[in-house]
């Protein structure tokens, strides 16, 4: 027997003095009166069957219990037995959730009072349609359909509605998809497995919110194995900077065009680096970015829906006594601009002049985005372009963004080291840097995925230097704050609007690093001040957990499925 069927997934507590009995799927489907009263569901069962169908305006509990009954036991109990059962389950570590009483509301099918049909009858139409095969096998389909029609005051309207549902119209699948799995792509080892960590944390948070989650692991499954998924229904499809949304059929059309669900791809780098991803967009795909400017760029230059939704963090408990790292930096090392620019100047003088002007302008106007600076460089040299030509030119010089960020990253760390502040770095990339022999640079082995949280939890201060996110927020900031370490980072317009320098975060300007070592030294000396800022940051970061992001994504799904 299925292991799930050995476990109770829901109980219905009756006020009557009855003996405990198991209610079958068939019994519940045929008689909703059996599952009245105080209803409790096991959290794992709720998630396993896809959660509450909040697209139904009535009979949500009843519809949920039908789904649970197909996979788990549903028990009918009296008050005393029910309370004893819950005490034993809770003592065993199982979390049970008490469902609110179902409510019935009226709604119009035709837009006016004459077409009124109760939401309860609409829910019945959906259930009869969803389980029409099972009802037919029991010889009850016709009776169930006639029962709906006889209960309606507007039989013609009810008939049209029922026929549409049975035929599998858009409204049927809109309701049906609400309890289908959310598919998440995993299997990316970039950036010390951070993208897979994001996928796992988001998936877990969605499950905590009662959603069913399914994973497609690219380390174990080939893109060809995606083909059967086009025949299935999903509530949504989510990727972390994945190229899977560009996978095509042999005919050249996109496979995801045949998966009728809202789709979201978190993109963490500047969009110009992800040109190929953005040019292959299936229907209903929205890019989610850590920078508001990135979202604007994607919509303007790629005609692609985009939203600002940065990655988040999670909290692990850590005592103050464990903070044995003064300042940590969990980024990798990268060379700056000088050598690359020399090669270009020697090979192509005209291009070299353009890039020199571009870089100089970016350094003099650090608040501007790379695309703003690049367009001004082109205008300075009289270069005209179409939107498509601009993307091609900008894509060619995309490396400038990364290497200029590396330049300032190295500059900030060098300033701290030379001031005698010990900085802990992680990973082999630092072995190649000019600061390797500096006595204040403390090197550690690389950390992967969630292990970074342990480092933040041991740190008094965590240094962050943005990858040129001028209106951005990163998981480093969220994770640092959630481990009650102080974030020290260059400012962005988003941080200026949502945090307070010196109160819950320490912000600095890339073109004015002179006072930064003293501010950090002050925090290391004055423990009370550091702890106060860390606590304020921790409280502010409660809005930046993966559970919070999961809730935001569920709201997006509802907006996008209506659209």
- What's the Cα radius of gyration? 29 Å
Q: What average pLDDT do the residues reach?
A: 93
Secondary-structure arrangement, i.e. CATH architecture of the largest domain: 3-Layer(aba) Sandwich
Residue fraction in strands: 5-15%
Protein name: Glycosyltransferase family 1 protein
Domain Spore protein YkvP/CgeB glycosyl transferase-like: 413-555
InterPro entries: YkvP/CgeB_Glyco_trans-like
Organism: Parablautia muri
In short:
Pfam families: Glyco_trans_1_2. By secondary structure, the chain is of the alpha/beta class.
Description of the molecule:
With 563 residues, the protein is α/β, with parallel strands linked by helices. The chain has 4 domains: 4-98, no CATH class; 106-177, no CATH class; 182-312, Rossmann fold (3-Layer(aba) Sandwich), CATH 3.40.50; 320-544, 3-Layer(aba) Sandwich (Rossmann fold). 45% of the residues lie in helices and 15% in strands. It contains 23 helices and 19 strands. The strands form 4 sheets. Strands 9-8-10-11-12-13 form a 6-stranded parallel beta sheet, with helices on both faces. Strands 16-15-14-17-18-19 form a 6-stranded parallel beta sheet, with helices on both faces. Strands 2-4-1-3-5 form a 5-stranded mixed beta sheet. Helix 13 (338-347) packs antiparallel against helix 14. The longest helix is centred in the C-terminal third of the chain and has 20 residues, at 399-418.
């Amino acid at each position: 027997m299925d292991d799930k069927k050995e476990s109770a997934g829901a109980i219905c507590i009756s006020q009557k003095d009855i003996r405990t009995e198991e209610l079958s799927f068939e019994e519940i489907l045929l008689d909703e009166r059996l599952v009245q009263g105080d209803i409790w569901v096991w959290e794992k069962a709720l998630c396993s069957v896809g959660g509450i169908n909040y697209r139904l305006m009535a009979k949500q509990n009843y519809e949920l219990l039908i789904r649970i009954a197909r996979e788990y036991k549903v028990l009918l109990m009296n008050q005393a037995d029910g309370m004893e059962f819950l005490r034993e389950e809770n003592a065993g570590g199982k979390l049970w959730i008490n469902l609110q009483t179902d409510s019935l509301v009226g709604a119009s099918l035709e837009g006016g009072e004459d077409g009124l049909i109760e939401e309860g009858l609409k829910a019945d139409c959906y259930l009869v349609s969803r389980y029409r095969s099972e009802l037919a096998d029991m010889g009850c389909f016709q009776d169930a359909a006639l029962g709906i029609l006889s209960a309606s005051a507007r039989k013609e309207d009810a008939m049209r509605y029922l026929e549409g549902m049975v035929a599998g119209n858009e409204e049927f699948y809109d309701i049906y998809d609400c309890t289908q799995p959310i598919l998440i792509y995993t299997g990316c080892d970039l950036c010390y497995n951070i993208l897979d960590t994001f996928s796992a944390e988001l998936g877990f948070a969605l499950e905590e919110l009662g959603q069913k989650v399914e994973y497609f692991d690219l380390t174990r499954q080939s893109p060809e194995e995606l083909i059967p998924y086009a025949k299935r229904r999903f509530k949504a499809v989510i990727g972390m900077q994945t190229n899977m949304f560009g996978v095509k059929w042999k005919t050249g059309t996109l496979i995801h065009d045949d998966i009728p669900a809202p789709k979201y791809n978190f993109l963490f780098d500047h969009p110009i680096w992800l040109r190929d991803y953005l040019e292959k967009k299936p229907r209903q795909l929205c890019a989610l970015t850590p920078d508001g400017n990135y979202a604007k760029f994607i919509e303007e230059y790629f005609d692609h829906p985009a939203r600002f939704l940065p990655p988040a963090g999670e909290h692990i408990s850590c005592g103050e006594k464990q903070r044995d790292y003064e300042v940590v930096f969990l980024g990798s090392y990268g060379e700056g601009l000088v050598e690359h620019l020399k090669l270009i100047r020697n090979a192509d003088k005209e291009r070299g002049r353009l890039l020199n002007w571009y870089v100089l302008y970016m350094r003099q106007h650090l608040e501007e985005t790379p695309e703003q600076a690049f367009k001004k460089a082109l205008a300075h040299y009289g270069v005209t372009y179409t939107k498509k030509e601009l993307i091609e030119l900008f894509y060619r010089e995309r490396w400038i963004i990364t290497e200029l960020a590396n330049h300032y990253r190295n500059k900030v760390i060098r300033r701290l080291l030379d001031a005698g502040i010990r900085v802990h770095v992680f990973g082999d990339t630092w072995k190649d840097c000019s600061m390797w022999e500096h006595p204040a640079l403390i090197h550690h082995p690389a950390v992967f995925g969630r292990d970074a949280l342990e480092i933040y939890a041991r740190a008094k201060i965590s240094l962050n230097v943005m990858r040129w996110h001028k209106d951005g927020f990163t998981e480093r900031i969220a994770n640092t704050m959630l481990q009650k370490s102080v974030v020290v980072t260059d400012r962005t317009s988003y941080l200026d609007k949502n945090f307070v320098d010196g109160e819950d975060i320490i912000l600095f300007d890339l073109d004015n690093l002179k006072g930064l070592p003293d501010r950090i030294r002050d925090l290391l000396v004055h423990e009370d001040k550091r702890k106060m800022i860390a606590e304020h940051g921790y409280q502010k970061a409660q809005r930046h957990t993966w559970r919070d992001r999961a809730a935001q994504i569920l709201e997006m799904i509802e907006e996008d499925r209506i659209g």
